[in-house]
Design a protein that fits this description.
Two copies of one chain form a homodimer. The first copy, chain A, is α/β, with parallel strands linked by helices. The first copy, chain A, contains 13 helices and 17 strands.
């Protein structure tokens, strides 16, 4: 079988996807893999033979430390869905010819649902054609919506950013002695994990978000207005956290009611935007309160300067576990995290058949949400608190965090 | 004369306005001032006798440390402009009666242009009626648009946040192998100091912002499109920093071209919003590139977790210098910062007559801007770099920065 390894990153970025890359790379090197390649722009770049030699690029311990502090995908990314090989094998034939030419024995893909679908299809094709290349997936997504795994690397840092930001915005939004509503628009189309993280801000030094609206609960604008009005009787300046994906009972996104609703992301996918602005307009018109809409936007997934150390370390462990698994003979697997206890927090990696995880979506359990009072229950807090614990100090150069960059 | 001191905070918040409060308070205590009051919600709260006893609230060294790490105005804020006392003295009579009843000898106001106008008017009224209460202003604004002072406490931390964020968003925005334009919308209606800070991101590990558009330079959409197109020939994914206040040659704000242009802030002031969204639409229509609009929003002024230590310390020094000045007999003054050298960076406080500073606005020198290439020149970088240097480690509790909060 092949002697070399190749690693790719795929899908949307996170603050810790590079820590997983560092984990895969480090274990491959320690276990004596001759050459470790990186694919530029995921499978899409691989098809164009856009490769880099990670063994050379990451040869120093400093480069590994910097890599773990660099947000987004060091290798570049893609959003590419492989066809069914039974219908169209040509892409597979090209890919496997290239992998064999590079003497690849181990193939790692770090990503979310779509990336696990890639691992599934490649490992099935390998079995069908009798290839012994081993395919292992490393989970990654800020959305925390992958099945099987207790949580997903990337979520903890995004949750920490949202907690930090919510605390700071609460301080900012409550300085005037007047009625106001600040609405934070948080990512998450179908799963409310990120928006729920705003609940972490509440503590003895912070009022926290007065209301939290997840996509798992049908959004009723009239009930929302009544809740805002009631909450303002207690404290005039409110901060409200709303998922970009909140929908009315009939399934329509609330942001579709805004004038410039659906925007298009750099990949050409429509993305949701405008929910907070729409709700601000509604509150202004109906309650006469001052409002401000704040979209947390892409910073949720790239604010590495406030990454969770727990998350950075688990991302590294997941990468290392994937490398260990492949080198020990496993294929068609994804690494998952299994929590042993909340407090003290204990969590281990384990392997799951990729069929268990690909193309499924995990949402926030309804019993963790107090829909009536738009708040997260203690169950959620106990789940989320350990994931944002501890910090990774950035390496500051001239006052700004230093990153590791791959030249184009 | 009076034995006690009173401190107020006014105008928009910053990450370090509380460090100035700590500076005034600490020197007053050290110099033996009997009682230090805080006004809730600035002069507006003072008129309603909304006072707190800072001597009790800030009695421990830990509370001072936490205060310096807490964004926004600990005491609350207001936007309140005093009338001309020659036309309407009633507010002044009420205020001075209260100040005398509280045995106030020293009055400190931490704020921007409007707040310095308050110091000016109160000190003039005091002179007119023969009061010996001393009035001293402490500068504060993220906008950096105060005259006389080399820079304004609050700007360094906002600039650091913008530098950190721009670096992270550049990493995030350049992961796909395709054309895209990400537009960062940055605060600053007339002065481009904050938007210019995006230039700090460029370094050997970061491409930085490809273009920077300040309100000081008339914005020509056609020239902008041509520049974007040209830049994309070199690197397909661009990040562009645009001031919310950019205007066409005829003086119209670019954001007025957006559908939902002028929004209203929690104080009821119209604020500019939508510039980035408008430009994204324009680029999409005319160049067919993918786009994303990111409004940095209120986080620019409250992201204390990434405050500049230089800024936090200078804010404290300005507060301390104000207390020293008042206790030494000065009135009708504002503390300013005077830079002695860029590298090594040396900066001292000095006093200026409040008439020199109130109601004037300082913009970015045109010779620091390369309008043709939409870039900041080295002069600006030499000016701004020292202001973002070094960090203040937040005190993390349960994974989030701890703040000091005044109960409502």
């Amino acid at each position: 079988m092949g002697h070399n390894a190749i690693i790719g990153q795929s899908g949307g970025p996170t603050s810790v996807i590079n820590s997983s890359l560092a984990g895969v790379f480090s274990v491959c090197r320690r276990r004596g893999v001759r050459q470790v390649y990186g694919m530029r722009f995921g499978v899409q770049g691989l098809l164009k033979e856009q490769l880099v030699d990670l063994s050379a690029l990451l040869s120093s311990p400093l480069s590994i430390e910097l890599l773990q502090r660099t947000p987004a995908s060091y290798l570049g990314s893609c959003r590419y869905k492989l066809p069914d090989y039974r219908q169209d094998a040509s892409v597979y034939e090209a890919l496997f010819a290239l992998l064999n030419r590079l003497d690849i024995g181990y193939f790692f893909y770090i990503g979310g649902n779509d990336s696990m679908d890639t691992i599934l299809k490649l490992s099935e094709y390998a079995a069908a054609v009798g290839s012994d290349i081993r395919f292992v997936g490393v989970p990654k997504t800020i959305d925390n919506d992958l099945m099987i795994t207790d949580h997903t690397p990337g979520y903890g840092s995004a949750a920490k950013y949202i907690g930090v930001t919510t605390k700071e915005i609460v301080r900012d939004a409550t300085i005037y002695d007047m009625k106001s509503v600040t609405i934070l628009e948080i990512m998450g189309r179908n799963a409310g994990w990120l928006t729920a993280a705003a609940a972490l801000a509440q503590d003895e030094d912070c009022e926290g978000a007065s209301m939290i609206c997840l996509p798992e609960i049908a959004f009723d604008p009239e009930r929302f207005l009544a809740q805002v009005e009631r909450a303002q009787r207690v404290s005039p300046s409110l901060v409200v956290a709303v998922s970009e994906g909140v929908r009315a009972a009939d399934g329509h996104y609330i942001c579709e009611l805004a004038d410039d609703a659906l925007s298009v992301d750099p990949f050409g996918h429509k993305y949701l935007s405008g929910t907070a602005r729409y709700l601000c307009g509604l509150i202004g018109r109906r309650l006469g309160s001052k409002t401000r809409a704040v979209e947390l936007s892409t910073l949720q997934r790239c604010a590495a300067h406030t990454a969770s150390r727990t998350d950075v370390e688990e991302a590294y462990q997941c990468g290392g576990a994937a490398a260990t698994a492949a080198l020990d003979g496993q294929t068609g697997m994804m690494v998952a995290l299994r929590r042993l206890s909340d407090d003290p927090y204990l969590c281990v990696t384990e392997l799951h058949d990729i069929h268990e995880v690909a193309n499924l979506e995990k949402t926030v359990p309804l019993e963790w949400i107090d829909a009536e009072n738009a708040r997260m229950k203690e169950d959620f807090l106990a789940y989320a608190r350990p994931l944002i614990l501890s910090e990774v100090t950035p390496m500051y150069v001239r006052g700004l965090p230093r990153h590791l960059r791959l030249e184009r």
